[in-house]
Amino acid sequence: MSTLGDALYAGVIAALVVGDQRSIAHDQWRVFTRTGVNHLLSISGLHVTMIAALAGWGVASVWRRLPRQAERLPARQAGLAAAVLAAVAYALLAGFQVPAQRTLFMLIVVALAFWGGANRGRSPRSWWRWRSC
What we know:
Elements: H1 10-18, H2 26-35, H3 45-63, H4 67-72, H5 75-93, H6 98-119, H7 126-131
Helix pairs in contact: 3-5, 3-6, 5-6
């Protein structure tokens, strides 16, 4: 926030990145409310999922190019671990509010399901996972 200084939309940028809405001017907030886009300025499940997906994809794609590491841990599992860690970090950075918590917990469940499938070289079948519980 200090980098942006007194820029007109500094509060909006902070809200979009970490969900801190306190710096948005009252007039700006009123415009966002009237136009129906105020919900975009809070951290939602979509934000957490996007960060997790980018981190997972990035780590997995780099991991595939490192044969020594890929022998110890498959690229899919490395990507899943990175995705979960990125989601945890971003949810904490955003204040660990209820929408971020829900998304984080569901991402962990999905990552665990895919982690088990990565050992057998296949993706999990959703109903098969529920039956085995």
